[in-house]
């Protein structure tokens, strides 16, 4: 219990280091060393019922992950967890990570992934919920999630926005978790407060290719034009130096 308390006291929120006001940096430390790091911007879109003109209508609460949140976490060899709470624990986000092996063409390789997301919220909290019908605490979670798949020893990076659906199984509309500007590493951190080499998400890789492809095509086109001009110049120079034989036979008498 003493060791667990000491580990919890070492959990740090480094949100002040992020230049983006909508993005937080979270660090979990155990035994005085960093074992999990996460940096991202997050927003939840939560549908809820409320009364309007004596009618029950559906509203939508947009809940950002506030700065200055309380951070807890657990680190393990193959399982890690990050827990973030804000507004006096009215809202709590829990991320679960799993490291496992996969058979590939190159043999057995280790990967880690985001295996589960859980979000708890209180509709009686008045900052984002206005006169909610039957207010109270709710918990929604992901189902069969396998996201942010990353080779072991690397951090996951993705600037593009990603959406994860969370539901409670009571036939209510799903809660949408919007993640962007993500950098996460839940295992194998080798330097304190420092991410390992990044593994970019497919969307970022495709966007990077789309940005560089026009430049590459422009360089190739420019090279083709230069080569064409050079060949034309050489050909023109060679043909200009050749003796021109008259095609009109009457001109042969002038040749001697």
Automatic annotation (TrEMBL):
The chain crosses the membrane at residues 213-234. It is found in: Cell projection, Dendrite; Cell projection, Growth cone membrane; Cytoplasmic vesicle, Secretory vesicle, Synaptic vesicle membrane; Early endosome membrane. It is a single-pass type I membrane protein. Plays a role in short-term synaptic plasticity in a subset of GABAergic neurons in the brain. GO terms for biological process: establishment of protein localization to organelle. GO terms for cellular component: dendrite; early endosome membrane; endoplasmic reticulum-Golgi intermediate compartment membrane; growth cone membrane; late endosome membrane; lysosomal membrane; recycling endosome; synaptic vesicle membrane. This is Lysosome-associated membrane glycoprotein 5. Keywords: Cell membrane, Cell projection, Cytoplasmic vesicle, Endosome, Glycoprotein, Lysosome, Membrane, Signal, Synapse, Transmembrane, Transmembrane helix. Gene3D superfamilies: 2.40.160.110. Its main location: other. Belongs to the LAMP family. Pfam families: Lamp2-like_luminal. Residues 21-189 form the Lysosome-associated membrane glycoprotein 2-like luminal domain. InterPro entries: Lamp2-like_luminal, Lysosome-assoc_membr_glycop.
């Amino acid at each position: 219990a003493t060791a667990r308390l000491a580990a919890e006291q070492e959990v740090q929120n480094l949100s002040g280091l992020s230049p983006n006001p909508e993005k937080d940096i979270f660090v979990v430390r155990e035994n005085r060393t960093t074992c999990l790091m996460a940096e991202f911007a997050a927003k939840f879109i939560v549908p809820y019922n409320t009364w309007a003109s004596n009618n029950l209508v559906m509203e939508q609460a947009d809940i950002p992950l506030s700065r200055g949140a309380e951070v807890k976490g657990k680190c393990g060899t193959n399982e890690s967890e990050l827990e973030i709470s804000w507004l006096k624990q009215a809202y709590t986000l829990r991320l679960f990570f799993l490291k496992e092996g996969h058979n590939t063409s190159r043999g057995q390789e280790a990967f880690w992934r985001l295996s589960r997301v859980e979000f708890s919220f209180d509709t009686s909290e008045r900052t984002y919920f206005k006169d909610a019908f039957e207010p109270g605490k709710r918990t929604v979670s992901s189902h069969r999630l396998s996201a942010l798949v990353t080779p072991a020893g690397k951090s996951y990076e993705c600037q593009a926005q990603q959406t994860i659906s969370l539901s409670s199984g009571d036939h209510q509309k799903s809660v949408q978790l919007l993640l962007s500007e993500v950098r996460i590493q839940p295992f194998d951190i080798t330097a304190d407060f420092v991410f390992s080499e990044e593994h970019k998400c497919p969307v970022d890789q495709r966007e990077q290719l789309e940005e560089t492809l026009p430049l590459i095509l422009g360089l190739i086109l420019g090279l083709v034009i230069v080569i064409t001009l050079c060949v034309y110049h050489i050909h023109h120079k060679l043909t200009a130096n050749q003796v021109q034989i008259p095609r009109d036979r009457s001109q042969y008498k002038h040749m001697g």
